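Bench notes, afternoon.
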Amino acid sequence: MLPGLRRCGTSRPSGSIRYLVPLTMNSAEHSDLMFRRFLERISDYALFLLDKDGRVGSWNEGARAIIGYDRDEIVGQPVSIFFTAEAQAGGLPVRALAESRLSGRFDVEDWQVRKDGERFWAAITMTAIHDDDGAITGFGAMIRDLTGRLEAEAQKAGVMALLEKTAGTDFLTGAANRRSLDAALIASIATAKRHARPLSIAMADIDHFKAFNDGHGHQAGDRYLKAAITAWKSVLRAGCLLARYGGEEFTVLLPDTALGHAMEAMNRLRLATPAPNTCSIGVAQWDGIETAEALLHRADQGLYAAKRAGRNRVEAGPGQRAALSFLPETGGGDLRDIAIPRNIR
């Protein structure tokens, strides 16, 4: 050890600070030195001093680790070297120095640039440093890399979006689930009432699906349900909501659709049902006063009517059969043909 110096620190665990100080150093000077050494060793914050013109005078190890420059590469460079070209063009470095001079401190979150050109999102703080007479002698600057936080926020947003989506989606088929259906039906009834628009709903059930499951296995049954949803979605117009009601039973919400057109749409859905199965469908139009539960019940009654009539057909719910003869034809032939079954497999 050199004469006139003493060693601080009796051990040297990883990351500890060990240095030599003059024997004549008083406690205040010793504290200042320890604090300076402490700042130099901080690795998750870039800390550096700027002269009064905004040029780098010194910085800590964290600055080298975060930004990538060695000390001899950066000392004397303007602080703007850390900012993006867009920020420089917009005058952000100049504004940071000006506001620090005026109010003593400047804070912002913005993109910064590493030596290799990589951008990173950072929190930037700049503080004016004054001498004993109050004159500005330079600035202290701190940059904290917030890339981890930004990535975590993006990941959280992605997870929340996924949860929001899956909260309203049937896991197996990808169709809407009962929760989505209930919310959409209540909203659709309110819209239909407010704007005096028609609203229909259908209940569809895959015929003899239990026998299909028993004969082919539940995995084959799951694959079939997915295929059925894909086929049905291909024939439904935009704005319709296809939801899994439970098991092999599905619901179709048809806003702005009167009963006759809804039955035609459901007949197209019936014909699109993948082989070897068929489906039966019941349809009901909102009567203007009934509850969502009552409307669903009437569609369900139409479904059971289709089952009793031989399956593989579309039937209207009770109380609206007579209305069919008053609805215009739309190129699909006589609407009564909708209830005629095709060959039952």
